[in-house]
Amino acid sequence: MGHTVQADEDGTVYHHHRTGDTMQTIKVVPCECSDPGCPCMGKCTLYGNTTLYRVDMIDKTGTPMCDRCADDALDSGVFTIDNN
């Protein structure tokens, strides 16, 4: 089991994770939290590993957030983990 992180010339970051003979590649995106009431004060510098969806509108794309910001957003009641 192992993993590597790779950045393209355009700055896109990919995380490669190998388990046995299987390689999984995930595009790493920055956390998009912009809530000034969040512990990050809307200026998060971490990477998003959870996608949350707004409950007060149709949201088919979601917002990537780090775990800390996702916890705060879920507690607010404005986001959910379901994209229905």
Question: Explain this structure to me?
Answer:
With 84 residues, the chain is mainly beta. The strands form two sheets. A four-stranded antiparallel β-sheet has the order 1-2-3-4, with no helix packed on it. Strands 6-5-7 form a three-stranded antiparallel β-sheet, with helices on one face. The chain has one helix and seven strands, in the order E-E-E-E-E-E-H-E.
Distance from first to last alpha carbon: 35 Å
The succession of helices and strands, N to C, reads EEEEEEHE
Strand order of the largest sheet: 1-2-3-4
Low confidence ranges: none
Shape: globular
**Main sheet: strands, sense, barrel:** 4 strands, antiparallel
Give the rounded overall mean pLDDT. Answer: 84
Count of β-strands:
7
Total of helices: 1
- Protein structure class: mainly beta
Report the helical percentage.
Answer: 10-25%
Beta-strand content estimate: 35-45%
What Rg do the Cα atoms give?
Answer: 15 Å
Summarize the entry for a quick read.
With 84 residues, the chain is mostly beta strands. It has one helix and seven strands; from the N terminus they run E-E-E-E-E-E-H-E.
